[in-house]
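Submission sheet (multi-component)
Chains listed below:
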Amino acid sequence: SNLTPEQQKKIEENRQRALARRAERLAQG
Amino acid sequence: GFTANQSQVFNLIKSCPLAEGIAMQSLMTSLKYLTTYDIRTCLKFLINEGHIFSTVDDDHFKST
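Outcome: structure written.
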């Protein structure tokens, strides 16, 4: 990968936030 | 429960193997028949539902 460690960290944080949001939406029905 | 447009946008994002995800420009090139407004509307929905997220900047996207 040509991404910097900072970019990789940012992507992983955004992924976790999106997964949490997905779970929240599913829980709401 | 995706619309046809949302499904097209989501599948393109999902199929992109790049670490930084797919660029807005690539989505526009691949989905020439959709307007930029249509694509941005789909992106907003997909982000809001947690299906995709922005990566290195607000113009690159990956699926969860």
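Remark: Chain B has a mean pLDDT of 97.
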